[in-house]
Each structure stands twice: as structure tokens, then as C-alpha cells.
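Sharing a chain and its predicted structure for anyone who wants a worked example. Both blocks are below, sequence first, C-alpha cells second.
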Amino acid sequence: RIKQSSIDEMFNLDADRMLHPVYEGKYAPIKIEILDHSQLIPGDYQVAFDGVDSLSNWKIYPIGGTDTVYSNQTLKYAERQIIPQWGIAVTTGFSEYRNGVLPNLIAQSKITEAPYVDWLTGVENKDIANNQNWIAAGNTDLSSSLDPVLANFNDYIGKDNEEVYETIFEGTMAPIGLMRFKQGQVFQNNNGNSIVNSSVSNRPVSFQLVYTKDTTKWTRCPVLETSFDPNSNPYGDEYLALKSAPSVDKNGQHDGTGTGMGWFPGYAIDLESGERLNMAFGDASDLIMEGGGDMIFNPKTSLYSSNGIELFGGKHYVFVFKNYAKEVNFSQAQNHIPFYDEGQKLYDLLSSSINTDNLLAWRACAWVQLPMTKPNHQFLSNDIKLRVNTSTPYGKYAFNYSDTLNNTNPLYQFHLDFDVSVEENILEIEHSIYPNPSNGMYFMEIDVQASEKYQMIVFNSQGQIIKTHQITQERFNFDLSNEANGLYFYYIHNDLGKQFAKGTLVKQ
């Protein structure tokens, strides 16, 4: 979760990206915990990765200081590492893409701003034999059905067999790789090229989609035809093709800039990079009474007509496109969708007469939403934020190809000071150590739970760790005979970090 102040700064600078996204506490790509105020050294710190694969490591150091602590394990193990000499703990996550399978869905949230009216709904996916069955998650094979209509509604088996992605905002949003084409057929572009496989292989990003009345934050974007019948509009545009109608301004008036462009009332942000993203939305020319055919994003309230015709609020489908240009080398980048450029590259590809250009545009598409306005509610009566997080692997990132900072590997910065409170629900573990002082041999009794794992860390007065011990029983001994006489410190914690103990040892 990126702080709103960081997002606001992006708009104030008119930059369309955050140079340094600032994350909300407990919702960053890495986790930093303060465990012991007595050991805390205030200041700014950085955590630098040396790669992004399973064999990569990280290091942490205070900016301007000389000490550096290195990870005990590679990223693959994503373990919580206590750094007792600084009174903190560092936890990194790790995930890998599985071929053809969507990543885990971590979280979704819908935030309504004042006056706190939830006016936004959508076309909820239903497992029925019509176009409301628009998300092809699951593992159902209907190809052998004697009903030719039902046979078109196979699930995209192997991509989301547990149907997790049918739950996002009550089945009104999904990764583009799970969207069905019209009449349940596999989603493809107008040239017959399947979009499903190319989209699923280019995973959906964690993102935030915002609907706002603030027109200064609206997104310039292509408008797509969402009527199934090309004969239903005066230009003969195919389903999901760029509309040939005159472009409009934020007031819905022809702006004289050409055709096929409009304004989405809001914006989308990549929560992993802090970039603003390109978008597109649909407009069904055959649904004039539902706000279709006017190039304006104005979803209505009706799902079906009185005689059962699919209205879907005017089919103002929302498409969010990731920055695919950063995922290819420099020589190819100019052919792919970048972060927000007012929809220019997306427009160029969709309007191109070259067949492969259309597919290049859809390859960058990450998410689709089928929005509607709730009955008896006013569209855009207040701002609404939709946030979706998936288990995306760490990745390299450079704004410019000449960027060399940390070799473009992840680099995070945080600040420590005494005003930050320690987790309130951490419990102290009852224990005793004897003899203390000692000639180096110590015995410990500790109250541990058999179901949990505990670790003891011993470090010297310079903060160097000299011994670690996995605690598996209530009584054990440990030996510091080979260490010099002096004062030592110990720290004990369970694997969840919710229980701890600390103290001093004297060797003489």
C-alpha cells in the first residue's frame, strides 16, 4: 500500500510516476520490526538485494555508517532474521511464477471516501451459459456437451482451478487472462490471435484503481467498442476494437483531436513500481439508452432489459495495462506499452493495420473490470479506491536504461527512531540462566511451547553475533568457553516474533 501523500506528490509534480514510493506501515515489500528499543540506533537504513531469484541475498546498513549485516539465508527461504545488535528484525518474502498459473491473490480492498457512499458495483460473474459467465476460472470441461452453447463455456483449466480470481469485488474484476470473449469463446483479438496465453504469461500487477471527481486526475485513454455486432454502430467497428467515433474532452464534447479517445474518471497505479498506468474503457454503440455510443464513461444500473437482453450497464468495461516496455530490452521497448503516456502507444497499436500490433497492445493488459452503478445511486458521487495485491516476485527496475543504482536490483530505505512503538502484544518468555557469571558453560531453563520454534542469539558488545542455538527443549546448556572474558548479550525469540527474552552474560 503506497501512502496517499506519495501519490499526491506524483500528481503535484505532474510526473506520472513516483520516484520513491513511500509505503504504509506493515504494507511494504519487506517487513522491518522494532523489537528492542534499548538496542535501537536511530537513523536511515537501506536494504539492498544482490539479485531477484531464489539464490539472491540481501544486506542492510545504516546510511553514513560502517556496519553491514548480511542475510543468513537466500531469498528462497524468506525467513525472519533478527538483528539483535540493532534491536530490529527483517523479513523478506519470496514467490515465483508457475508456468501458465496465476499468482496467489493476497488481498483486495474497496475504500469509499466521504460522504462514504458505495455507489459502485458491476457485472458479477455467474456460472451460467451466457455472457455473465465472463470469468473462465475453474476446471470444468464442457467441450463434450451436446448443447453447442454450453460447450463454449469451458474454463481455462490450469490457470485458476480454485476460482480464487472469481471473488474479486464479488466477481466484477479479474485478470485479463481469465476473461472470455463474446458468447463464451476464448478471448482473442480481431485477427483471431488468442490473448489468453500471452496475458497469463505476463502476470497481473498489484494495482490500485481510483474513481474520482477530480478531473485533474482523470486518465486520457482509448475507447473500445463493446457491442458484439459491428452493424450496430455507424463505423462497423468490431468487438473490442478501437472506436472510430470522434474523440471527446472531459465534458464529453468533440475535441477535434481525431478519433477513438476519451477520458476515464480516475487513474490506476502500479503498487510495485509507483508508476501510473495506461487504461482503456468500453462503450457499446447499440446501448444508447444505457450510456453507450457517446464515448463517455458513464456506466448505468441495469444488468438485463425487461426481455432478457444483456445490458451490463452499457458495457463500459475497464482495462488496465501494465508497463510492458520495462520487461523487454532497450531495442524492443519502443514496441510495447510503457507507463502512462496519455494512452498514445496503446492508441497507436490498436489503430495499426499491422495484425501483430493489436496483439502487442493486449499483451500488456493486466486487469479488466465490468463496472455498473448501483440502482438509486449517483455515479461518481464520491471517490472510490479499489486495491488488489498478488504475490508478484521481486524484480529489477530502472526508469532509464542508463540507471545503475544497485545494479537495478531492489533497494529499500527506512527510518528508525525512538518514537516508533514496539509491537504491544509481544510477550516475554520466562527463563533462567545459571551460573552467571560463569567460566563459559551456562545452563538454561525456559518455558517453551512444543508447537513453536525458538532461537537464541548471543552477540558481543560490538554487536557481532558469536553463537546461535535452536531451542528444542526446556533445559539445555551452551558453551562460550572459547570466547574472551567479558560481557555478552543474548536474545531469544519464537518463529513468529511474538515472544522474546533478552539479557546479559558475564564470562570470567
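Comments welcome. The CA atoms of residues 430 and 447 lie 6 Å apart.
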